Amino acid sequence: MLYINGMNEKTFKLLKSLVTAFLAALVFLAILRAQLALAVIAGVAGILFLTIVRTTGNLVVDEREQTVREKAAQMTYLIFAPTLGLSSLGLLVLSHDSNYFLESLGVIFAYLTLFQITLYTLSSFFIDRKLGGYGQEE
Question: What is the pTM assigned to this prediction?
Fold first, then answer.
């Protein structure tokens, strides 16, 4: 079960409801716009989300579950950031003055990559400081 430290059950249920509503809206809009691949992917993501995030019993976070979440977040970043960054570079190179759609998509991907790198760097810095580190390797 997924759970964030310091979150009570009411906040957890609210977050679960918001994510479920977002996924449902995404499926609905994708079907309206005839984007069937997006609708299927969002539907599968919604089913996975609802299957994994169940609120049965007490919300307990043990050391193993915390380690699993940390490893999953790190693996997600290590896969997603380079993929998004290389995609942005590829789109920007391929578009050079001929296709504005590809250029715009490349710029959006570049901004998202920069945002993700900045967010990761700042959160790592502040978490390190919070846990007693000073941002330097010994």
Answer: 0.63
